[in-house]
Request: fold
Amino acid sequence: MADEQWLEMIQKAEKKCLIQDGKRKVHYLFSPGEEMVEEYNCETDVLIRRAWRKKSSLGGEGQWDVEIGDPEEHFLNIDQVLIKESSSAPFVSRRITKTSLEWRIRNLPYPLSVYSVTAEPDSKCITVRTTNKKYFKRLAIPDLERVGLLPEQDKIQFTHNHNTLIISYQKPQKVYGLEKKILQEIKKIKTSKEDVQCTKSNR
Amino acid sequence: MAAAAAVKVQEVREVTRIERIGAHSHIRGLGLDDGLEPRHVSQGMVGQLTARRAAGVVLEMIKEGKIAGRAILLAGQPGTGKTAIAMAMAQALGIDTPFTSMAGSEIYSLEMSKTEALTQAIRKSIGVRIKEETEIIEGEVVEIQVDRPATGVGAKVGKLTLKTTEMETIYDLGNKMIESLMKEKVQAGDVVTIDKATGKISRLGRSFTRARDYDATGPQTRFVQCPEGELQKRKEVVHTVTLHEIDVINSRTHGFLALFSGDTGEIKAEVREQINAKVAEWREEGKAEIVPGVLFIDEVHMLDIECFSFLNRALENEMAPVVIMATNRGITRIRGTNYKSPHGIPIDLLDRMVIVSTSPYQEKDLKEILKIRCEEEDCEMSDDALTVLTRIALETSLRYAIQLITTASLVCRKRKGNEVNIEDVKRVYSLFLDESRSTQFLKEYQDEFMFNEMEEELMEGAA
Reply:
């Protein structure tokens, strides 16, 4: 099944781990120049951050693509990035808690009645729509994809508070199981206190 | 009523006309028919029939893309349209073929060695067509807003609002982006795609909802649906990048952003070797395709002997582009040596080139060119003034005569005339000296100027 594939991928990857500021930080290096970084809270063992980096097809290092946690901040000048969303535009950040998968969409000022959040099993995502046609977003759910589950409408809940739309999806048992197995895997890695990184053998 | 309409037209024009008028901005192509026969006056080109035909043949060779490392020399007196022919070739090749234009003196930079500058120029002229997944923004323009800071100095601030049928987002724009939006003349109601990484804009057409705005619709306007769903999408696109761009992306110290600032410095030879191997690999796998382009070196006599011998070798590489050079020199010293050679280029390099010569324009050609320039510079000129200007071009130089067009039209506007007449041309002819009259003047009043050579010679004679 899909969850075994993911577990196998994690097992095969070159891993380094360190504990810093009460966080367990894990760096994975997968075969075709793909990297992943995870940060777990040492006390609760909850994943607080996961980011990916892939090499672009022309070579050269890409940018970190944040799957879970707040998006990377850019300190680049607007002239260097050419075009970017204005700072008042909505942006999504993902979180995982003990019991649910969460999305927070900030900078959304419209009242709760405007939004509709639907599970779309065909495209394996959750879609956020607004009746005033100001915001639309397809949210992928990598955690469900990894265990081979499709999103279900009755597991979705959403609220709106402080300009933020919070969507939570009840964590299925299968996801819970996989997380546990991976955590066991990670705890096997020898940890160090210093900054380490997997050697870039493919370079 | 009619006057009001005319004023309105004028306004629209000023908004849309942002490009400035350059020396060769009237050129749109080589002006050849399908059989490569040059038309006498076409696409901004006039006369130089044999040279244009030769350029057309070279163009076919470039388009086929099979032949690497050929060199073509455009030789001719000053003001005979060498650069114009090169520009026309660039226009005719289109945007997907890399065309790098440089002046011979550009290689003398303190930032990098001469051969590095040449290598970069050569690698900028070789394109690689490759499929890549990029993030694009696709939407209908709701509003473009560009503000200049109140102080008048500093960067402009731009905002672009885009929408799809489902959503709307405001984007902040960098200066380069503002410029390219202006250049593409993007306005509200257009449906555009923007490549987020490279900033490349393509206009897909106008939105159907704007189909009734008749003033903004030209005869070739295409109407498209407003895009659906999310504004940002990941899409596989085929695009052409140059070898130099791949070099820069892969040279660790600089990264992708160096491309935009233009500050790339020297690139290590190992990086280039790696890239060459990689590209060859992609090509074998059928992932990429090489698009050999054109390197145009103007004022090529400014290169020195080291550059020439480097070029000799570089042209033999199978990845070399077609190199077009232009010079206005006759038999002269090769820079960096005491030897003389035709066009200031060593014989062994000359031997590898095909030489296309341009000849001085005839009177009627001059008249055509001046007429085209008058149109380009938005100047109404009477027939007899044009004849006088043609005579001036014949006796002094074409460039001098072209300089007089806008100056004369300004003089004409000051006296509230509608059309430049002979008097205006005479006026500017007396106001601005051409090269030969200036020389004449200097010869007459030599001793009244400071540091003049004659005095020096006299002093030396006295000592």
Summary: Confidence is low (pLDDT under 50) at residues 1-18 of chain B. Residues 363-446 of chain B form a domain with the Helicase, Ruva Protein; domain 3 fold (CATH 1.10.8.60). The longest helix of chain B spans residues 269-285.
